[in-house]
Amino acid sequence: MDKEVKGTKIIQFHGEEFVLSSDRVLYYPSEHTLILSDIHLGKAGHFRKNGIPVPIQINQDNLDRLNSCIQKFNPKKLIFLGDLFHSESNSEWDDFRDWRSGHSARSMTLVLGNHELYSAQKYEGLGLEVVNWLDINGLRLQHEPENTQSRPFNGNSNPASISESSASASISGHLHPGVKLAGKGRQSLILPCFAHYLHQLILPAFGTFTGLHLITLKEAEQLYAIAEDELIALK
Amino acid sequence: MVCTSSLDLGVDFSPVDTVVQVGSPKGVARFIQRAGRSGHRPGATSLIYFLPTHALELLEAEALRSAIQKDEVEPRQPIINPTDVLIQYLMTRAIGGGFDYESIYAELTQSFAYRPLSEKNLSSIIQFLCTGGPALKAYPEFSKLILDQDNLYRVHDRRIARRHRMNIGTITSDANLQVKFLSGGRIGTIEEWFISQLNEGDRFWFSGRCLELIRVDRMTVYVRRAAASGSAKVPSWLGGRMSLSSNLSEGLKETMYRAMDSDHRSEELSYLTPILEVQKKWSLLPQPNQLLIEKSFSREGCHVFFFPFEGRYVHEGMSTLVAHRISKLVPISFTIAMNDYGFELLSDQDIPIEKALDNNLFSTDHLVKDIQSSLNNSELAKRRFREIAQISGLVFQGFPGESRATRHLQMSSSLFFEVFQTYEPEHLLLQQAMEEVLFFQFDELRLRQVLQRIQNGTIEYRQTKRFTPYAFPIMVDRLREKMSSEKLIDRIRKMQEQLIKHV
Questions:
Q1: Contact assignment for B301 to A57 by CB distance below 8 Å
Q2: Cα B38 to Cα B369: distance, rounded to the nearest angstrom
Q3: Closest by Cα among A116, A55, A60 to A86
Q4: Are A177 and A202 in contact (CB under 8 A)?
Q5: Taking each helix axis from N to C terminus, what angle separates B380-391 and B428-440, rounded to the nearest 10 degrees?
Q6: Tally of CA atoms within 13 A in the half-sphere of A86 that contains its CB
Q7: How many inter-chain contacts (A to B, CB under 8 Å) are there?
Q8: A89 inside 8 A of chain B by CB
Q9: Residue A191: phi, psi to the nearest 5?
Q10: What is the CATH number assigned to the segment(s) A8-233?
Q11: pLDDT tens per residue across span A81-138
């Protein structure tokens, strides 16, 4: 992708080029890799098991959106930045298994979330590589962002201290970042966003059946709000 | 004791001698009910004071007094066939030993609210509780109500039963969050909507201390002590946010005309004289056959005020209808506020009110169609759905000692609303929300009468340099409806420009 198309933004992050997409995914062209976070599969099933009726289409809708992203970027590799499964759900696991077998030619990696539900073995059984974190070209891919968003790594939140590795910045999810915009006439809007900090890039949650955590523009280098099928740089 | 409407009903404190009602009680029945919180013993006398928060509430005080003297308490319109309450009742019966179809149907139809309940209707609700899905479609792994061999419906899952017991009731409230020190130690609870307005690092007063918000995590607000600062926010509580029934409007109108007539004024009304004079000087004191419309500009944008004096319920529907009709003329976004006297449309851009008036803004033509589109484009149904979601057990308040696993089942009613709208627009509970809004806020007959009355009278349009005494109380109202006919992307671009202008 050399040209920016509608709904995407090309950014430079620590010397690497990335494509942000309003489909709530990040594409890494030089690595042919699609990165996404927090799908929360199984969440609807978890609600249903507890007697709260949530439509079954939510799960399939998430996978359908994922398919259209794969079609758009044609990645060789997919990386899930944690919270792939929110809860145990047989039917939704089966859906995921079927979906995986439909993309057997692509390699997939799961970076484990803070409370990933299924065992690594179960994912490995479907041909997913499972890791706690991943270092690529000096970038650390992990589920949770560092504590202080504007500062470079101190390595506190990770078993392997980042200072011992060559990584100088991170890409993560977990937060479900959203931003509130306010205008005249007491109008306001809340939108999901990508958060670009000096040393961190935080992805929006891919799953749509989930809330948002509001962040502010102040500390960020840039926030990219997702407005339907468009991306808007807010600074 | 200082309280919100949460202590309106069902809580008895016999030592209370006097009640002070701060601001409008928004209804005669409610005012009497609140008075009854004092002297709550057989034979004792209740005492209540009314403390107006702005001058025009003196009118309300007067209208309240005369309504009480004449024993004119507004009737309570019962809700017919509410699905949410039925769901809760069926679940309660299922947990309490189980129920069978025939006898529960016979029992329900004996009650006033469910007299028109059809067998088909009941079947589809039971079906919904058994399968979770829309008609004839079962959700996988759904479990709630189960039909046993002996033909009784029961709940087998103990966690579902326990959660239901903890959430029985039809008085809904905003979600409460625990407030805790980062270092440990619980301080109290606060309503979610207040916290949601704060950013991390903001300060607020709570329990006599100035606190700094550190973060919100799983229904808990973590704070630390902070130095007192002038910018610290003071929390407020919405309490039950009961729907506002108000038949005060007739009395209010009467009182207002009486206030203009210097011969028939009570002591309270005489205090209003200077204010009414300002209203007259800056704009107009409308007569019974006049609809006053005022337009003014502020830093916030363009404000248009309408004063039909029809009571809050009518104004809710009417303001949405009027906003919808204007938004068909030009792409525009509104926030809408209202009280018993009138309503306000506020927009960041000039509101083409003259053009709208030329286009028969108050016409009764296409009323049904316009009501339907107003309903679809406004958030009234979503707001109504909040209560329905709680009563029917889609969302629930946490309870003491609950595990983290249950907290994973918390989802906002607005997210449910959106999910149902996307995937199951025919959902029983969505239908209920729509029907209730149509019944209460958009009562077609009543709206038609009001519009007719406006058309038969005259419309007085004034541009004012400042907010008039009539306009001011509406302008300061923070609870607002929204409506927009602009594209999302255009709204964002405008907000961005405004942001840049600020800096």
A1: no
A2: 48
A3: A116
A4: yes
A5: 130
A6: 24
A7: 126
A8: yes
A9: -130, 145
A10: 3.60.21
A11: 999 988 777 788 999 999 999 999 999 999 998 767 788 899 999 999 999 999 999 9
Using a CB-CB cut-off of 8 Å, the residues of chain B touching A22 are none
Helices (H), B349-395: 353-358, 367-377, 380-391
- Residue B164 phi/psi, 5-degree rounding, is -65, -45
Pairing mode, if any, of strands B220-225 and B176-181? Answer: parallel
Q: What whole-number distance in Å separates Cα of residue B237 and Cα of residue B198? A: 15
pLDDT digit string, tens, across residues B227-256: 988 888 888 776 544 444 556 667 777 777
For chain A, domain boundaries: 8-233
Q: Measure the CA–CA gap between A159 and A166, rounded to whole angstroms.
A: 15
Other beta carbons less than 10 A from residue B295's beta carbon: 18
Nearest to B178 by CA among B224, B228, B216: B216
pTM of the shown model = 0.84
Name which of A56, A61, A228 is nearest B140 (Cβ-Cβ): A56
What DSSP element (H or E) covers B324?
helix B312-329
C-alpha pair distances (Å), A118 with each of A111, A122, B314: 13, 6, 54
* CB contacts, 8 Å: B144 with chain A: 51, 53
When pLDDT is cut at 50, 70 and 90, the band that residue A156 belongs to is: very low
Neighbours of B410 (CB within 10 A): 14
- d(CA B309, CA B289) in angstroms, rounded, equals 11
Q: Tokens in use for B386?
A: 């909040």
Amino acid at A56: I
> What sign does the dihedral A179-A182-A186-A187 (CA atoms) show?
negative
- Tell me the two tokens of residue A76: 């060789």
Which tokens sit at B453? 């009355």
Structural domains of chain B, ranges and CATH numbers in brackets: 83-166 (1.10.10), 176-225 (no CATH), 248-268+275-379+443-487 (no CATH), 382-437 (no CATH)
* H or E segment and range at residue A69: helix A57-73
A54-75 b/e (C-beta count within 10 Å ≥ 16 → b): bbbebbebbbebbeebbebbeb
